[in-house]
Amino acid sequence: MTTNETHGKGDDAWLAECAAPGRHSFGLASALQTLETLFTIARWGTLAWTAQAVMDRAAAHERWALVAFAVTSALAVGAGWTAGTLATRGARAVATGLRQRLTAALLPTAGRIGETGPAEAAWAMVDLADDVADFHARTAPLSRSAPLSMIAVLAVTATVHWPAAIVLALTTALLPLNMRLAGLFAQHGADRQLAATRHLNAVVLDSFRGLRTLRELGAVGRRGRTLTTAAERLNKATMSVLRRAFLSGMIMDLVITFSIAVNATYIGLSLLGYVQVPHAPHLDLFTGLLVLLVCPMYFAPMRARASAFHQRERAVMAAGAIRAVVEDTPAAAIRTAGPQLTEPVGVSLTAVRFRYGGADRDTLHADAELAPGTWTAVTGASGSGKSTLLSLIAGLRRPSAGQVRWQTPSARHAPALGGCAWVGQQTVLLDATVRDNIRLGRPAATEREIRRAVDAAGLSAVIERLPEGLNTRLGEGGWGVSTGEARRIAIARAFLRGARLWLLDEPTAHLDADSEREVVEALRTATDGCTVVIATHSFPLAAAADSVLTIDDGVLHDATPVTAR
User: pLDDT tens digit string along 157-169?
Assistant: First the structure.
């Protein structure tokens, strides 16, 4: 199902479609739940038979009844366990499918306009996907097995003693109304809980991310109070949902208890000879005990469905939040990178226009031809569209109009995700060794290739002074190396990819003059023979380019030669 096809559909319909990956497992689980009901009816029948045999002092019947009870008990337990296993497998398939769709939407994807915050993205990926999956694991098998199970119990009850079946049928009419009211009653509370959870996630993430700044400003205490308030709001919303669930569950339990009590009273008085319904079949110990044992089974599926009403509201909210993320990704995404291009790569921008969703004017107009093997600097004021231009060239976004093409001597290619090297002003370094951070560019790289990347990025001297060389473990965020050294690790990582097109987004931002000069020298060495496009405010970096493009009022101007080298 493409995202375009989901537009216009309600969250309920979208929630139902999410069950598709686990449908086969849920179908098998439903069949086994029905078998579990049948085996359980047989088990209670054999137990009633055993009681009747004991009453009649029929030893032979007692032995056979006990054997039958053991066999049917094993079959019922086995069917129930297998049904649960299949439902869990289906839930995993649903959660995996949702996470794959979220991954495709959250990672840089062609044409994606909106940006999802880290807190909401993590929440959707970790929690909301499981909320939807757990809901389907619980309700999808029940949707098929519940009616069949109830019919089976009602049929057995009617066969052995039809007055008891009439009591069950009359009570059933009261339950759907209670279930519907329970669902409506819980919806408002689920909305509040969802909003409170989203707010708390954002507050926690922002607090940890800005902890250093908060500490420097002396605002840790105020932020702590904000966090406490958000947690209390979520606690109140959760307790409200629980109170509503408890109240609706209590009403259902009253109805069920009343029905079972009526049947138990009737059977007890009938066995004592105080009540006799005209034309009703004879009631003995076997019949009465069997009816009393299977009556609770009749209401078990409805109790489970009622409980699922509350879970359903949470799942609908979760599906809506996930849907808001994945529907922002167009159906026709740019192709992923094929074989690494080994020929010189040029870039062609033909009548390119880009406009963010909801904007009333284009962000960028671009027409340019970037020759293979050249350095091109893109300058302009902050927010002018330099990073947007790079993202269009990389294939991270699709233009609203026009074409972006990578040109080689043999062919023209649409931008391919992962087909170019990207170095930005924020270098992502993992809590791992220097070697592992460099090898992110190509995990299968040999030691010799890693050493070449180190030399090309001008990292040799840095590696030598580290306590364990390439095996030195960097702290989270790159603790242990300077900002300039971190940039050169990113350059080594990009070099290792072997891409012929490099896109650099403010690669020397926040560096002093000496560090900037070292990074520029490392880039010159690492990108020899490659096409390089640089978004920058730095004159020394622009001066190192072969040509300069300027973005003014959203328009990319023709290249002008750079005289200062």
Answer: 888 888 888 888 8
